[in-house]
Amino acid sequence: MRVIFLGPPGVGKGTQAEFIAKKYHIPKLSTGDLLRESVDRKTALGKKAKGFMERGELVPDDVVIGLVEEKLASPECQNGFLLDGFPRTVTQADKLSGFLEKMGESLDHVVYFSLPRTDIVKRISGRRSCPECKAVYHLESIPPKRDGVCDVCGMALIQRNDDKPETIESRLAVYQEQTEPLIKYYKHRGILSELDGSGLVAAVQERLLVLLSQPR
Ligand code: AMP
């Protein structure tokens, strides 16, 4: 299965992507995770990306496209993949489509996660993550068993810098301006399905499984 999860930051794509990737035995490519890893490792790419990420802006297309194409060309992606957080601009979507065409592949689903803005802000501001194993929690909906401590590896949980209130607004504005046009882009190509992202994680998961099991 080749699938894209599209939607605003904080909508719950990452949490569902983790589940779906395991369920369908496909690799999850989250450009946010890959970029954060590069920043942590202080690679050349990470140094380029850091400032943009801290300001809540998009990392330049050429940087992200190179990163994704390298992954997609690797053997682990030959039988499918789940893209979470990519594409985020029309240029990225065009590049992806050209790349897939060249490989003789096509997308099975583009799932657009929708959620009212007030819920998005609540979800982003309550998000906490583990700096070690990258597990993601939410203060209300997915709380860790012990306050502030990762269930998996026991590390102290942190709030991502770009999840702090001062950056949330700019990320949402960037989403609206640069990523939202992709809804029309994929609708026009007949491969977009809208998923109601509201409610409990398990409820969204159920709706998502139904959607993915149906032909578009
Ligand atoms: P995310 O974890 O998906 O919310 O991404 C965190 C940050 O990484 C974003 O705010 C951007 O700065 C950067 N980023 C992630 N994916 C992309 C992308 N496809 N294009 C450009 N920047 C990206």
Summarize the structure.
This protein has helices spanning 13-24, 31-40, 44-55, 61-72, 90-103, 117-126, 165-179, 181-188, 201-213, and strands at residues 2-6, 28-30, 81-84, 109-114, 127-129, 136-138, 192-196. The protein has 216 residues and is of the alpha/beta class. The radius of gyration is 17 Å and the shape is globular.
Order of helices and strands: EHEHHHEHEHEEHHEH
Second-tier CATH architecture of the domain at 2-26 and 79-115 and 172-213: 3-Layer(aba) Sandwich
| Radius of gyration using CA atoms only | 17 Å
Q: Mean pLDDT across all residues, rounded?
A: 94
Largest sheet: 5 strands, parallel
Q: Poorly predicted ranges (pLDDT <50, ≥5 residues)?
A: none
Count of helical regions: 9
